Amino acid sequence: MTLVFAYGPETLQARMYDRIGPTDVLGPAILEGYRLVFNKPNHKDKDEGLANLEPKDGESVFGVVYDLKPAQATLLEGFFGGYENRNLRVAILDLENPETRIMKSATVYLARRTKAGLLPSPANVTATRKGMEENGAEPRFLEALSEYESKA
Predict the structure, then answer these.
(1) pTM of the shown model
(2) Which residues share a beta bridge with 62?
(3) What pLDDT does 151 receive?
(4) What pLDDT band is residue 102 in, cutting at 50, 70 and 90?
(5) Cα angle at 98 between 21 and 13, to 5 degrees?
(6) β-pairing verdict for 101-111 and 2-6
(7) Residue 123: which region, alpha, beta or left (left: phi > 0; alpha: psi -120 to 50)?
(8) For position 95, what pLDDT does the model report?
(9) Rg from Cα positions in the chain
(10) Under a CB-based contact definition with an 8 Å cutoff, are residues 10 and 65 in contact?
(11) How far apart are CA 24 and CA 138, in angstroms?
(12) Strand ranges (DSSP E) for the chain?
């Protein structure tokens, strides 16, 4: 099995299931030392930014860890053209006991190319918010997303 830390619109479980089929969800997770940005150029609309992560000390990103079968992991690679994968340590959260965090190594997709000044589509911002809410994101992550909602 392959653990994948998904962020942005991919935190919306229905979106992920539509792409790769039903899969196990280990739960919400946090990746420390990165922040969510929308700076990967969309090859269909060069002015639109897709979700990406960039290193940033003192910040963190909310996501969801999925446990994928090998065929699902291969299928997911096709949806993430222009991204490279890295294995990073993420903290899987226990929503019933917020102090409990289980550290796991997971595949994280990061854009190969970025461009400043891009904005996400309203649909991507909405999917990101819904995914965060669906998976119990802390208010600070939702507040950080509001920066993009006012611009999208």
Answers:
(1) 0.93
(2) 30
(3) 67
(4) very high
(5) 15
(6) parallel
(7) alpha
(8) 72
(9) 14
(10) no
(11) 22
(12) 2-6, 24-42, 45-68, 83-93, 101-111
Query: Residues 95, 99, 104, 108: what is their CA dihedral angle, to the nearest 10 degrees?
Result: 60
Domain boundaries, the chain: 2-149
Q: How many residues does the chain have?
A: 152
Domain 2-149 in CATH 3.40.50.150: no
Does residue 116 sit in helix, strand or coil?
coil
In angstroms, the first-to-last Cα distance of the chain is 36
Dihedrals φ, ψ of 43, to 5°?
A: -65, -15
Task: In whole angstroms, give the CA distance from residue 101 to residue 87.
Answer: 18
Instruction: Check if the beta carbon of residue 29 is closer than 8 Å to that of residue 136.
Output: no
d(CA 119, CA 122): 9
Beta pairing partners, 119: 48
Calculate the CA dihedral of residues 29, 31, 32, 34 and round it to 10 degrees: -140
Contact of 131 with 66, CB cutoff 8 Å: no
- Percent with pLDDT over 70 in the chain: 97
* Residue found by looking up tokens 């909310």 in the block: 62
